[in-house]
Description:
The chain has helices at 21-37, 52-56, 68-71, 128-138, 157-165, 176-185, 216-228, 232-238, 252-263; strands at 9-10, 61-65, 79-86, 96-97, 99-104, 119-122, 150-153, 171-175, 192-197, 201-202, 205-209, 242-245.
Amino acid sequence: MVRSTTHPVAGLPMYDWPEVRDAVDALWSAIVERLRANGIEAPDSVWRPTRSEELWAHPDLLIGETCGWQVVDELRGRIEVLGVLDRGVDGCEPGDYRSVVVCRNDDSINALEDLRGRTVATNGDRSQSGYGALLALFAPLAVSGRFFDTVVTSGSHRASLRAVAEGRADLAAVDEVCWRLGLDHEPAVDSLRIVAWTDPTPGLPLVTGWASAGLRDALNEAISGAVAGLDVAVREPLHLYGYRIRPSSDYQVIADRLAAAAAAGYPTIA
């Protein structure tokens, strides 16, 4: 028996939309089967706390999914990156992703400069795809630390899409995987269009708690095998194409871009 945490918890919260929850559960079941075959104790189901931070900070985290921003900030030294589920994002290497900047179909916006003085929606100020990506994109255009007139916080990418569609904001940066999920399931997307794409970034990482870091190779073996064996009925709704093992150091690019935006006088969206 491979030694594991006492009462392990796991979660895959980042793309866990209600419409694809069954597929997320099926993915986890496939991973559990591989883990237990290798003698690793694993929970029957994913944990879905109200706040994902509860999952990431849990001392018995076996496998979780987080944002790259957290990897280079508050979770540094507390988790070990395992790898990333490859979502097959166009214009990106396997395991990378990017954000789309969206506006309403009937808006006159044609270029980034046209967004000056507008209202932007962000899903939160600790999101790489919804906030950090905007910092990197608009830092060169900001004047005295400002580019937008108003910033509204939506709480999620899906809520940002709705905020723009309903006229409460003029634009938002949305994880392209969430944009695809929106095309599948969110009516608000029908009234939106893409203005720009941000630079590719390492995708949302699967991580394990520091107490389980010694299981990294075994966890990655189980995840890789589970993903490779998934039926198309599970892969398709999740836009899942494979799994890429990668080190924590891959995410340093996020910290570097945040530092560059701050050095340019644009440390926060404004």
